[in-house]
Amino acid sequence: MADNLSELEEKLAAAEENLKSLEDAERAIDSAFNTGKADRAEITRGAHDHAEEAVRLVAVAMEADEMADDAARMSVIASRNSDQAGVKRARAREAAARKQAKADHKSASKAAKQAYDAIRFSAPNKLGFMRVIQIMFLLHIFSTLLVLWMTSRDAIAYNSGTLFDWVMIILEGVAFWMFVNQYKIAKPYVIGVGGIGVVYHIIMDIVNRSFSFGDFLMNTVFYFILIFYFLFSKRVDYVMVNDFSKHEGFVERDEFEINRKGWPFYRNLIMYFVIFSVFGHWMEAGMCQFIILGWVEGEYDPTNTMLWRDWLYPFPMEGMAVVIIAVALYPLYMWLKKKYANKIVPYVLSFLANALTCSIIEFSMGLLINADYQLWDYRENFGNVMGQVCLQNAVAFGVAASIIAWFVYPLMERWIARVRPEIMNIVFVVIAVFGGILWSLYIIDPPESLTEAQVAQQQMDAEEQKAQDEKDGYVLQLVIGQTTAESMRSGLEESQYLTAEEKAQLSHNFDEIQRRYAEMAALLGGEEAVDFVGDAPAEAAPAEDAVASDAGAEASEAPAEEVPAEDSTTEEQVELAPAA
């Protein structure tokens, strides 16, 4: 009885295994037929069908031409027989046949042109002018990274132009990938990228109030070429034919296994390295905060610009640690779970392996780049080895690595497996280009540590910048207010319900408002702020002596008790404004 039961269990297990194999094969077949890639044979077959349709339509047009010729001959015969009714009928048939023949010839020409275009553009590697655009995108990406590599981080101007350039090379990297895979979405995507470039330069010209058609055309001509080429090029329509995969991934909750072969695995490793290099920086900063609070033992360097100023500075040691977790420590953890029935032993052994591996990485990197203890120094910490590693950090790294190996890494792999491969490839391109920007900016030419005086000067500069930004905000509000007042003032002349006296009084008040705006702008930013507010009309911003005479006249006409105390202050401000 026991033997029969055992045999039955074996057969059941074999049946389940076969069923699982069949399901896997079915999913593989479904993935093969839902890749989203266009069938090149189908495209060529379409060209063949267009050609056959053109031949058929030409034959139809020939029949219509023959009918028209027969009708013309019948018309001649009827004319010679003086059969006017027959002539009319024959000419009517001829006109109808000629009209039909013209339509058939047009349809045949259209089908023939479609067949020609389909055959002409059916070669998968002939991108035409798109290849030039693709190369220009690639050159722009590498030239931007090369400039960052050759320029010190402290010499980079973090303005809108720099950030725009970085965003554009990320977008161009995605476009390059779409060209390689010939996605249909490349057409609207590239048009959108060109539109972003044009709109950005329009906005900057408006903000800077320095529009020059020549400069604008020079800065945007490439983007206009992109827009018009992808709008009207037939090659784009015939070559960019692939869709995204319709297969969204299949993940069983209990039976999910990480695919450790092929492009997706290595793609994910690169993304983990870039992302966790930055996350590792933030983890180090958090550890220093614990040291500041006295929760853990250690020292920190407040002048280390890599840690405290450059928050996107990648720490490659942490990124490499996550890669090692994915390649070795997670498989070790899974092997320990299968080997030991006890649920605690695998976690203990995995934690020890994680802590030891991270300590070896830190020790090795310390010998390479921290021989002078400039970056970290654990010589005063308990359980240190040559001041490069210590027991406290080994435990902390072991905890962090265990959390990643046990929970974070498998969870990320499960999430990624649910996303379409094309989407993840695009995400990879974005992360890879962004990582290239960070490495070119920071790692290749790292900033030096600052002295205490330099740190204090930076803090002072930051406070001055905040004050200047606040003043600029006020000046911007003044610009808006002056524009509104000027618009209302110009509308007074068009009013049909105000008397001339009311218009004169209101116009005078608006002039006074504009004068006050100029005074406030002068107090906030000097002559540059006044220029930024704009040139007021002559009556709105009179010369200094004219303002003084007008104010004196108003003071003499008004009763003494009605003159506000602040008028004298206003006159003093007006007199001091040019000097400012």
List keywords for this structure.
disordered C terminus, 75% helix
Structure, explained:
- The chain is mainly alpha-helical and 580 residues long.
- 75% of the residues lie in helices and 0% in strands.
- The protein has five domains: 1-32; 34-120; 129-239; 263-439, no CATH class; 456-541.
- The protein is built from 18 helices and no strands.
- The protein is flat and about 125 Å long.
Number of strands: 0
Taking pLDDT < 50 over at least 5 consecutive residues as the criterion, the unreliable ranges are 28-36, 526-530, 532-580
Radius of gyration: 39 Å
Helix share, percent = over 70%
Shape: flat
What class do helices, strands and sheet pairing give? mainly alpha
- Major β-sheet profile: none
What is the multimeric organization of the chains shown? Answer: single chain
Question: Could you outline the blueprint of secondary structure elements for this entry?
Answer:
Layout: H1 2-32, H2 40-80, H3 84-120, H4 129-150, H5 160-181, H6 186-208, H7 213-232, H8 234-239, H9 263-293, H10 305-308, H11 316-339, H12 345-369, H13 391-417, H14 421-443, H15 452-492, H16 500-533, H17 544-557, H18 566-576
